[in-house]
Amino acid sequence: MSRLCRFFLILIVACTVSGCFSPIGSIGGSDMIDLLWVEPNRLEYKAGDRFVPNYDLEVFASYQGVSKPIPLNEVEISIAENPDKPNDLKDIPSEGYTLKSAGRKLVVVGYSGMDTAYSIKVLDLGTGGIDWIWEK
Predict the structure, then answer these.
(1) pLDDT digits (tens, 9 = 90+) for 59-71
(2) Are 117 and 108 in contact (CB under 8 A)?
(3) pTM for this structure?
């Protein structure tokens, strides 16, 4: 093997190991995701507000340590109105879901056989007057 070929081979291996670029092919790897997570853009709502996935959350997955955003049209998004019954899920359409009652809700996101969840708080601010919410 010539010196030039060895140099490029060592350069490719060094860049692959250091993370400059991904290796070509897979050596004992898998295309399954390692981790799925959601970054919510909003955690508090008022009763009557709409939960709209395109505005209210972003979804990410990790493949062998490399994270990438997941388009929302590729994930399943559901909500448990009663977080004590997390299996009682309602699908959330892309145009949104009206949050009718106050309390904690559980948002469940599924992608490629994995699920993750986070909770949101829906406040009942009453029907008239000014309501004050004090937080410690």
Answers:
(1) 999 988 889 999 9
(2) yes
(3) 0.68
